[in-house]
Amino acid sequence: MNHLPLIIKREYLTKVRNKSFIIMTVLSPLLFIGLFTVVAFLSQVNNDKVKDISVLDQTGLFSSDFKSNDTYKYHQLNNAELSIAKDLTKSSDYYGLLVISNLNENQTNVQFFSDDTPSISVISDLERLIEKKLTQLNYTKRAIDISAIKDSQVNITIAQENFSGQKSSKIEGFLKLGFGGAAGYLLFMFIIIYGNMIMRSVIEEKTSRIIEVIISSVKPTQLLLGKIIGTSLAGITQFVIWIGLGSVLLVLVSAIFNIDFSQTQAPQQVLANQAMQNNDVQMQVGEVMTAFYHLPLANLVIAFLLFFISGYLLYSSIYASIGAAVDNETDTQQFMLPVLLPLILAVYIGFFTVIENPHGTVSTIFSFIPFTSPVVMLMRIPFGVPMWQQILSLLIVIGTFLVMVWFAAKIYRIGILMYGKKPSYKELVKWIKY
Amino acid sequence: MNKLLQVKEVSKTFGNYTALNNVSLSIDKGQIFGLLGPNGAGKTTLIRIINQITMPDSGEVFLDGESLKPHHIRNIGYLPEERGLYKSMKVGEQAIYLAQLKGLSKTEAKKRLKIWFERLEIGDWWDKKIQELSKGMAQKIQFIVTVLHEPKLLIFDEPFSGFDPVNANLIKDQILRLREDGATIIFSTHRMESVEELCDDIALLHKSNKLIDGNLLDIKRQYKTNTFQVGINPTNSYNELDFHSKFNVNDAHFKTLNEELKFSVQLQHNQSANDLLQYLISIGEVSYFKEQIPSANDIFIQTVNQS
Description:
The complex is a heterodimer of chains A (434) and B (307).
Chain A: H1 4-17, H2 19-48, E1 51-57, E2 72-76, H3 82-91, E3 96-102, E4 108-113, H4 120-141, H5 146-152, E5 160-161, E6 167-168, H6 170-207, H7 211-215, H8 220-257, H9 267-276, H10 281-294, H11 297-325, H12 333-356, H13 361-366, H14 373-380, H15 387-415, H16 425-433
Parallel strand pairs in A: 1-2, 1-3
Antiparallel strand pairs in A: 3-4, 5-6
Helix pairs in contact in A: 1-8, 2-8, 6-8, 6-11, 6-12, 6-14, 8-11, 8-15, 11-14, 11-15, 12-14
Chain B: E1 3-14, E2 17-28, E3 32-36, H1 43-50, E4 58-63, E5 66-67, E6 76-79, H2 91-101, H3 106-119, H4 135-147, E7 153-157, H5 165-180, E8 184-188, H6 192-198, E9 201-206, E10 209-215, H7 216-223, E11 227-234, H8 240-246, E12 248-251, E13 261-266, H9 273-283, E14 284-291, H10 296-306
Parallel strand pairs in B: 3-8, 3-9, 6-7, 7-8
Antiparallel strand pairs in B: 1-2, 1-4, 4-5, 9-10, 11-13, 11-14, 12-13
Helix pairs in contact in B: 2-3, 2-4
């Protein structure tokens, strides 16, 4: 008797009809986008506010350089005492006071006084302005031709090409990293969210005591598989709705509030962007496109699906057996760490070792260990992994999954009928031997 | 073949603990079989082995002459002592799901559920969730789910717990009706009065071993002590010493409607009930005369204490 479709259907429907599931499915993108909007809105408001800065220039060199604009309004304080300047800035409730003085002939001393710690972008804006002016003065003092320097500056981009003639670039490297990282991280999140869901649903059957009725009609392996597949389908449904609803909302919100989300960036990113702005934007877009087409797309998609599914199945069978072994959710703690550890390790290896050297010894080894391989391999594949390695790694994962299901079914068969006893590892080993 | 279920020398240990030690049973078709025993005797383990939830370490179980296989699941209906249903699932949906797991089609399950809902006076609960029902109502649903696929063998573990007397009676009638329709029933309970009332054969498990089994009336005959309870209104010819010298007499306490002398008399091997009755008539007016038959309760307590 094959009851698998029946069990899958029930698991799926109960999950999907569950009120908290529905609420979370609808609410999560709303909350996420809402939060995003608020952050974007606030940082825009923050940026929009004109900052009043009083400038005390004791060198007399900057009389015409501090020009007020949308962001800053400069107030020149001519020849005032430092203490008076400070008081004046404070009483006018300005953002801060910039003091430029001469230490000696060749050295300039710049100080900034403010109530609160000034933002990084303000400081770097001011520094850049002063640096530029002083550098120019130095050039003039030493009679250096500025246009000659500009003309002789060279910008190098190394053209990368492998021996079979395929071209690649730095951007392609970033793109690969992005793909691999996103895939690995997605799997990690999926396992944690929906693995827990499976565990809870097993525990629920134990606490509602229906398990004895079910298990007298269905084989534990079938029940286990049905649960895993049903819950995964519910998870995928939720994920797809999240992505769909999220993108629709994002478009709507940005249209309504006229917020450009791409401008919402951390100061570090702003600096990095400024550093990179030398390149022609048009050229960059073209490069990204070619890099995108250079990726082994078919391989990526197929490998993603296979590793994602098998990796998820492997971990969910572990979660299910934990659920079967314990009585309530608080007892699961002692078993959670050994499950999470390899998962976290995999993500760390992915983000540090694989990025550094995708085909190094560590990366290669961990892309064969079944508990880390789905994540690590997903991160490696964009960089081109030989087909035999991918297949071997996949076979190991699937093999381990089958062993794990057998093992989980054993624990399941005994564990689901054990009540009131908190099992130790020793006891679990005994159960498997039965 | 009139044996529906045969359990042959089944043993089961959990670690160092022996749950069943070489237990054999055979259950005739169409009877109600009482599976008795104190807590922890191994009843539930035996029932789980019959349901193929756990596997025996040694021994074998035959259903209708065939060695027990997974496909026999649909011939068995099991009402566990620990009741449980999916709390957040609707009554109708849940019943259909569980029936489908036992191999019924959806339409057939629906049809039979309608009939059973009427029989047990369950009206418009179809769309209610289990968590909205009272305990007794949920028990009724669970009972229906157990019998819906019309199995050959029904196993009821404490079927009356949680029911008020009216509903318990309703369930009892349904159990008797199921037997009439041809089902064989294993009935595990601590309520001896329902054993008395329902069971044809019984088996008593204690500390993983089977102590006694067989027809309940036969067992009672084995356990009876030829003791009679008598009540008389004595006449002048009553002589206490003479009575005591002729018979093994003890004072007794039992309830009657009149005030009379009450004794319990155990007959010797050479004495018959008629001998006693004739003597009693000669010493007074007999108002009460009844053989003391051991109840299932007496047998249970006596056997368990002796072992």
